[in-house]
Amino acid sequence: MLVLTLIALATTLGWVGTQPQLATSGADTYLAFGQGSTITVVRSTDEGLSFGAPSGIQVTGRMALGMRRGPRIAASSEAVVVTAVVGARGGGADGDVVMYRSTDAGRSWSTATTINDVPGSAREGLHGMAANPTGLVVVTWLDLREQGTRLYAAVSQDHGATWAPDVLVYASPSGSVCECCHPSVDVTDAGQIAVMFRNSLEGNRDMYVSRSRDGRTFDAAVKLGTGTWPLQGCPMDGGAVVLGPDGVVAAWRREDGVFLTTGSGPEQRLGTGRDAVVGQVDASKDVAWSGAGGVVVWRAGTATTTTLGAGRFPSLIAFPRHTLVTWEDQGRVHVRTLPR
Question: Rounded to whole angstroms, how far apart are CA atoms 21 and 327?
Fold first, then answer.
């Protein structure tokens, strides 16, 4: 396949901060990122073509931030939910998944609510969140309440207003999932849930997905791709997952490669890099990752990749008319749109 590298010419928006994340519901799109003890949220009413004034959430304690640690954001038809892992000491010494909720499109925020039931069990600082329009919100995190790292989740059925007790999603028979790779989650409009994580199983660090129809019980985890990665250590790279018309669509790293899987099919190598994220609209799949020259975007159906500029840790949303991408570089958050 011929691969060309193009430089995007669109104007870049930027703010001071790190670890940006995107969410959308209806006509609204939200961007959240962190700096020190502040989470900043900005809202767009035109699918990320422009953004309004920022809104700040002041965190009480020390927020996990960096290497995919940082705030997560999700939006339903009635609320915007922001989560972060926060502890009195931080730095892996303690930490809980705390939630802030807005019912006025991010103009004001509730006080913090702790989601995990066992205090300090989320201290690794790595978590994921997703929501659907009807108010199902799912948070998943690496949990340390017992010896070894396990994967837990909690579910809200009312736009984040109340939360059910924690549930165990997966415990590795080898004693621990991969200790420093963030999990990710997606939720369909019909309430289907998919949680992806990097496992540590018999010396291999491969990607697995567990699915649920009710948020209380999760199916047996299924390995993605046909290859495997024997590795004694953590690559600190958890990829991303969406649930599309073809089932689970996931982008992830193995060794130096970025791969895409759809359903139960074999993996497709897209390029060299790490920090992969994925989005889908209709049949269109978009993937972004951190490459040697900066943030790279690949879109299905084309023979090109697009290099946006220096930086790492992208997040993206696939819209019918464009792809919205955000990333960080040297303490600043950047946003660009790529027309289809």
Answer: 8
